Backbone:
């Protein structure tokens, strides 16, 4: 199921074309439903929780002189682990609750870098491409600018755009976030990289969904 409908995609493509008509920079937009399944990370977290709970139960049983047969105790731990695996497999939305924020953001950042390279944003003639990236499940956004832009524009200048994308992602307003981000990015690029007579469009003007 697509995150955005055809009308949203059309409006975003038009916004990119409009922004690029005023600058020699190139804007590429990518949105991912999530940047990883996180199944194994969540499974590890669940396993650690089960082991910790088993230790608490074992200590409590010893303290209160309550005997639990070892086979029963072992089978209970195994059943708890298998149950957690099944829940994570059939209800993948729960995995995000068991993944540390640092891990989520690291995976989303890696995905953004991979998209920057895979979509050839780094291969424009003047190295003036930027990637607007959002990973919805992680509520993560990033702007990656190529070397030509980094020479004149610091990452601090992109932070407002990143915050805008994140705020809209949290509200489920991905399309609106991209439209505003594209407009602001276009103004920033226009300031530092005005359009020239020999300017050509080097990247596709549309939003890519992963």
Residues:
């Amino acid at each position: 199921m697509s995150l955005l409908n055809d009308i949203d995609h059309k409006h975003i493509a038009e916004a990119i074309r409009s922004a690029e008509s005023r600058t020699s920079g190139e804007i590429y937009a990518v949105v991912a439903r999530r940047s990883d399944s996180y199944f194994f990370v969540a499974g590890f977290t669940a396993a650690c929780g089960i082991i910790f709970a088993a230790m608490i139960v074992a200590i409590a049983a010893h303290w209160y002189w309550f005997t639990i047969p070892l086979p029963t105790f072992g089978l209970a731990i195994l059943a708890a682990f298998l149950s957690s695996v099944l829940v994570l497999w059939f209800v993948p939305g729960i995995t995000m609750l068991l993944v540390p924020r640092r891990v989520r953001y690291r995976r989303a950042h890696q995905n953004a870098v991979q998209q920057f390279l895979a979509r050839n944003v780094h291969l424009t003639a003047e190295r003036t491409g930027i990637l607007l990236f959002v990973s919805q499940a992680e509520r993560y956004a990033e702007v990656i600018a190529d070397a030509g832009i980094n020479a004149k524009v610091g990452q601090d200048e992109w932070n407002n755009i990143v915050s805008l994308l994140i705020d809209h992602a949290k509200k489920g307003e991905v399309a609106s976030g991209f439209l505003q981000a594209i407009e602001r990015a276009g103004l920033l690029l226009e300031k530092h990289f005005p359009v020239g007579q020999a300017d050509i469009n080097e990247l596709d003007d549309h939003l890519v969904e992963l």
